[in-house]
UniProtKB/TrEMBL annotation:
Its main location: mitochondrion. GO terms for cellular component: mitochondrial matrix. The gene is ECI1. It comes from the Eukaryota. SUPFAM superfamilies: ClpP/crotonase (SSF52096). One of its GO terms (molecular function) is delta(3)-delta(2)-enoyl-CoA isomerase activity. CDD domains: crotonase-like (cd06558). This is Enoyl-CoA delta isomerase 1, mitochondrial. Its EC number is 5.3.3.8. PANTHER family: ENOYL-COA DELTA ISOMERASE 1, MITOCHONDRIAL (PTHR11941:SF45), ENOYL-COA HYDRATASE-RELATED (PTHR11941). It comes from Orycteropus afer afer.
Length: 296
């Protein structure tokens, strides 16, 4: 069975994500709040507020594996088709790690067809998020490197927990790889050209104070207030008529989106040939081993 079909089938019975009605929340959430589960993503929807909180729960580090990318994409697609939802807040189900970024095991020791499938899924999730008609907020309640940072940069605003361990940035060069043009463009659109050039070349991971200063996040708040702040900021975005906000968002992002749409196939081929190089495989394996050694 194709991965998308497999993941669709995995979504739990009774979930709106499967086309049925969401159950009323057993605990927590406002009146009428609804909860839906998939394996790696938890959705808490509050139709009265028009907002859904999408929580990553892909232990141990919320890495963006092929299955996680696919499940997240399907959840977002369902929410986009749900007329009661106008805004989405992305966060981690458990504080500590927002997302460790792309799953390195998807880029190591596999075959070219797998790399192509994986990269296509990364592109698709980015396109879905960056072009979303929803207002999107990131409640960053944990460390947020590389692909995790990219996810947050697709949102309309970012709230980061004030914990010096929670660094954020596109640190690819530190691994010996580099951020492709559309990662770079997404960052340029947020913090500008010069700050992006410095951040990308040095592979910087910013502390909360630094991230706020450079404009990578909009607010830094105490850890226990990240989600509530993200929801309260969301109400400002939702106070604007949807059509006006959406047209403006499209106008701001279209050129960046068009670049990837225009070069999508070439970008996949470039990724596959780059990641398949022996030297790059070696670098990634050493990096993964270093991460693993820490624990053994
Ligand atoms: C022509 C050009 C075309 C384009 C070419 C482009 C090429 C590349 C494009 C972009 C690619 C990549 C973007 C990415 O996102 S790469 C991923 C970057 N992520 C990181 O550097 C973060 C790595 N992880 C950590 O720093 C830490 O794990 C943490 C997140 C700070 C958490 O620390 P912790 O102490 O709580 O947990 P830890 O013990 O380290 O990890 C637990 C287990 O999880 C494994 N793991 C961690 N991160 C990843 C990951 N990203 N993917 C897969 N697995 C991961 C880790 O190995 C531990 O495993 P084990 O339990 O020991 O077996």
């Amino acid at each position: 069975m194709a991965l998308v079909a497999r993941v669709r089938a995995l979504l739990l019975p009774g979930s709106r994500l499967r086309g049925a009605t969401l159950g009323r929340a057993a605990n927590g959430g406002g009146a009428g709040a609804r909860r839906a589960l998939s394996h790696r993503v938890l959705v808490e929807a509050d139709p009265a507020a028009g907002v859904a909180v999408v929580k990553f729960r892909n232990p141990p580090v919320n890495s963006l594996s092929l299955e996680m990318l696919t499940e997240l994409g399907i959840c977002l697609e369902k929410l986009e088709n749900d007329k009661t939802v106008r805004g989405i807040v992305l966060t981690a189900d458990r504080p500590g790690i927002f997302s460790a970024g792309l799953d390195l095991t998807e880029m190591c020791g596999r075959n070219p067809a797998h790399y192509a499938e994986f990269w296509k899924a990364v592109q698709e999730l980015w396109l879905r998020l960056y072009q979303s008609n929803m207002a999107l907020g990131a409640a960053i309640n944990g460390t947020c490197p590389a692909g995790g940072c990219l996810l947050s940069l697709t949102c309309d605003y970012r709230i980061l927990a004030d914990n010096p361990k929670y660094t954020i940035g596109l640190n690819e060069t530190q691994l010996g790889i580099f951020a492709p043009f559309w990662f770079k463009d997404t960052m340029v659109n947020t913090i500008g050209h010069r700050a992006t050039e410095r951040a990308l070349q040095l592979g910087l991971l910013f502390t909360p104070a630094e991230a706020l200063q450079v404009g990578l996040v909009d607010q830094v708040v105490p850890e226990d207030q990240v989600q509530s702040t993200a929801l309260s900021v969301m109400s400002q975005w939702l106070a604007i008529p949807d059509h006006a906000r959406q047209l403006t968002k499209t106008m701001m992002r279209k050129a960046t989106v068009d670049q990837l749409l225009k070069h999508r196939e070439a970008d996949i081929q470039n990724f596959v040939s780059f990641i398949s190089r022996d030297s790059i495989q070696k670098v990634l394996q050493v990096y993964l081993q270093k991460l693993r050694k820490k624990n053994h």
